[in-house]
What does this fold into?
Amino acid sequence: MTLNTAKAGEHYTIAGCEASLKMRNKLEALGLVPGQTVNVISRTAAGLIVEVKNSRLAIGDDLARSLIVE
It folds into this structure.
């Protein structure tokens, strides 16, 4: 499943990413790497608010579609 289909209040583990190398590098800098646990805080009209390593991030639907989670 991809992160854009995740439910608020649930924890997921990033399994992979289907983004360009440039975007993967940006995601890595934010801590969004395979094996990392993310907590979906809430859904918005444009995407998600997630918590990663005690930081909250706003992620747009396009980016969330590229993150494969379990």
